[in-house]
Structures are given as structure tokens and as C-alpha cells.
Amino acid sequence: MSPLSSLPVAMAATLRREVLVASRRGSEWANPLLFFVMVCSLFPLGLGPDPRQLANLAPGILWVVALLAAMMATEGLFRSDFEDGTLEHMLLSPLPLYGHVLAKTLAHWLLSGVPLSILSPLLAVLLQLPPTGMPALMVSLMLGSAVLSFIGAIAAALTVGLRRGGLLMSLIVLPLYIPVLIFGSSAVQSAVEGVAVLPQLAMLGVFLLLAVAFAPLAIAGGLRISCDQ
Amino acid sequence: MGSPRWFYQFSGRLLPWLAVPALLLLVGGCVWGLAFVPPDYKQGNSFRIIYIHVPAAVVAMGAYMIMAVAGAIHLIWRMKLAAMVMKSIAPVGAMLTFLALLTGAVWGKPTWGTWWVWDARITSVLILFFLYLGVIALHQAFDNRDAAAKACAVLAIVGAVNIPIIYYSVEWWYSLHQPASIKFVGESTIHSSMLRPLMATLTGMYLFLGWAVLLYTRAEILDRERNTRWVKDLVLSSDPRGPASNKG
Question: Which residues form the Cytochrome c assembly protein domain (chain B) (predicted)?
């Protein structure tokens, strides 16, 4: 069998393995969700429980906290693979690294971004977000968190070999997250105001397509650099 | 061309040819702009800060693109010199970005009545500043110089993808949130008497960038080659131009 024809098989295997490993280590996917819930609940305590004020701030709060949760989830994306040598096997495999990386990032999104989007309406209710904003919140988070996974994976790949990569990763990744945040939160804002949401969602879709096409190249490059040193 | 020693000696001869015109253009352009250009009919004299603000902002953006291109050259052709230039641009670019933000705030206070607005253009320059800081932080985190250069090159290239996004956010941000209340003066709408000194300081700022980056790169060369014979000779000789001129 030629290497390229076995690529889908390898990608499916990577995807299955990631989901299996994460399902056995609950904290991996549960901790970012807990973080999301807890930080969101800090805002009414800090800002005061006035429902109108919270409703105004809710789109921004939900998106910023989701972004931070996504960043924390991405930080360890390649750590265990790096430590136990799996990553080196991926690099040495005859299959393109692009495919491995794509499958791994996809698995990461399924385990972090998707649960976050599904959980978000609950927190939106707690933060008094008007019901008209809910569908836009879920769809924008679903699309946006996938982009965040890809961008975060680039930074995770670059910092995986460093002893204290955590804080550094946030420095690298947050500026790159900003466009996603702008379009994500403004989609929710527009939905609440009853204005068309499609332009912002379409932009998030464009980001996602660009990320799927180009981010795996940067991630693969970052992994090679981190393993070479 | 790739030899650090050759580059060190060549850039040493180049330095005054960058520094002197940069100084002349920056000082001359500022004096011209501050003293001889008539005041703006709306903003009075406060517009004059553009002679520093605009060059700083433009060159900060340009420097990022040069940094990303240098990073790409390093990744593709393994050219060490490109890595050194890339590393040297980051602090200079960060400084210019900070200068642009600072002068923008100083200009914003009398013009808009506020130091800071979350306008798309201002925010985008702030992101640029963060991108520079990210590259500097990433470089410092690595013990291995080669890995640091490659990782920074990847980050610089990824960040460059963000620059068109940042650029067009002027339109996106306000078309989605609220109508534009702030408009930047386009080059075509500026009077030629104001434009000429601006062009002078802009050119001066680019020359300054070249001069500052060369100085950083030369320091980096000395640091990398500190165990070689020629650097030891250079440091021991009192002549700053190097040991070659001592023999003559």
C-alpha cells in the first residue's frame, strides 16, 4: 500500500486514539470546561448581579472566557506525546506529518471546543444573555473554537520542548486569537440586537478554512524544531 | 555574503552612511515640519506630531514584514545571517510600535479629547506590539540558539498572516459595531507642504531602522563568534574599526 492511500487510515487511528486516551483521563477535557464555568461565575460576583448590565456584557465575557479556556486546553496538546516519544514516531513515519497534525488538532477540537459550545447556553442563561443570542453563541463558538485549536496548536508545537512553556504560550497565542474574538463576540452581539449574523459567521468560516489549510504546516514545522533541539 | 566576519566588516563601513542621512532627515524633517509648515486649519499645531507618529507606525509595520521575510529566508535557505537580522528587528520594531502608540496617545488627547480609543487602527498597532513581544519572549525562552531562531521564524511568519487581517479590521470592526467616528488622513488628502517633510522623516525612519538593526546584528555576530580568533583580535585592539586598520 502506498503511503498516501494509508493516510486516511492513519488519521482515523490518531483520531480514535486521542479520543480514547482523553476519555480515560477525564481531567483532560473536563478541566477546561470547569474553568469556563468557574470564571464565568466570577463576573456576576465582580461586576454586581444587575441583569441588564450582565446582559450587555455577556457576549464579550462568554467569548473571552471561552478563549482562555481554549488556550489552557491547548497548552498540553503535544506534551505527553513529546515526553513519551510518540511525537518522534510521528515525525519518523513515512506518512505526511500534515495528516497526523490535522487529526490531532481535530481530536482536540472535538474534546475541547465542541463540549464548550454545547455547554455555553447554560452559562449564557446564568449571565442573562437574551435567548435570541443563543444560536449565534453556539455556532460562533463551534466555528471559532476550531480556529482557536489550530492557532493554539501552533504555539503548543513551538513551546512543547521548553520547561516553562505555559505563560510564554499565552504571550504568543493571545495576539493571534484577537481577530477570532472580534468576530465571535460581535456575532453574538449582532444576534442580540437582531442584526444579520451571517457576515461574522462567514468570516469565522473563512478563518477556519485558512487554518485547516495552513496551520498544520506551521504546527508540523514547530514540532520538527522542538524535537530537533 | 553569509560570512559573519565579512558582514561585520562590511556593515561597519555602512553604518555612517545610514546614521548620518537618518539623523539629517529626521531632524531636518522635524524642524521643517514643526517650524515652517503652516498650521492645519482644523487641528492647529497639534497635527505636527505626525512627523514622528506616522513614520514610526509605518516603519513598525514594514519592519514586521521584513522580520517575517528574514525568518522565511532562514527557514528555507538556512541562512544564519537572516536569523540574526530577524532577531535584531524584534526589539527595534517593538520600540517603534511603542513610539507610534505613545505619540498617537499624545496626539489623541488634544484632538479627540482622549488618550485611548479602542479604534481598529489603534488596536491593530497594539496587536503588532504584542506580536513583537511574543517573538522576543519566544527567542529568550530557548537555550538553543538555532532552535530559537527557527521557532521565532515560524511565529513571525504566522504573525504576518495576521497583518492583513489587522489592516482590514478598520473596515470590519466599525461596520459591525458602530459607525466610524475617527478618520485618518489619507495621503492623497494631505497638502503637499505637509507631505514633503513627512516623506523626509519617513525616509529617515527607514534609514534609522536599518542603522539600528545593523547595530543589533553586529552585536549578535560578536556574541555568536566570541570564541573565534578575529573577534578576540577585534576586542583586544583599541581601534573600533577592527584589527585590519591597525596594520595599515
Answer: 7-176
What is the pTM for the complete model shown? 0.86
Contact residues on chain A for B166, CB-CB shorter than 8 A: 179
**Domains in chain A: boundaries:** 7-228
Q: Which H/E stretch holds residue A75? A: helix A51-75
Contact with chain A for residue B71, Cβ under 8 A: no
Q: How far is B137 from chain A (nearest CA, A)?
A: 7
B160 CB within 8 Å of a chain A CB: no
B154 touches A at CB < 8 Å: yes
Place of cell 504571550: A171
Mutate to test the interface with B, among A172, A173, A186, A208 (most CBs of B within 10 A): A172
pLDDT by 10s per residue, chain A, length 229: 566 678 888 888 888 988 888 888 877 788 889 999 999 999 999 988 888 999 999 999 999 999 999 998 888 888 888 888 888 888 888 888 898 899 999 999 999 999 999 999 999 999 999 999 999 999 999 999 999 999 999 999 999 988 777 788 888 999 999 889 989 999 999 999 998 999 999 999 999 999 999 999 999 999 999 888 7
With an 8 Å Cβ cutoff, is A226 touching chain B? Answer: yes
DSSP state of B35: I
Q: B44 has which bridge partners?
A: B40
Identify the bridge partners of residue A139 per DSSP, sorted by sequence position.
Answer: none
Taking the C-alpha atoms of residue B207 and residue B201, their distance in angstroms, rounded to an integer, is 10
Query: What is the spatial distance between Cα A215 and Cα A177, in angstroms, rounded to a whole number?
Result: 13
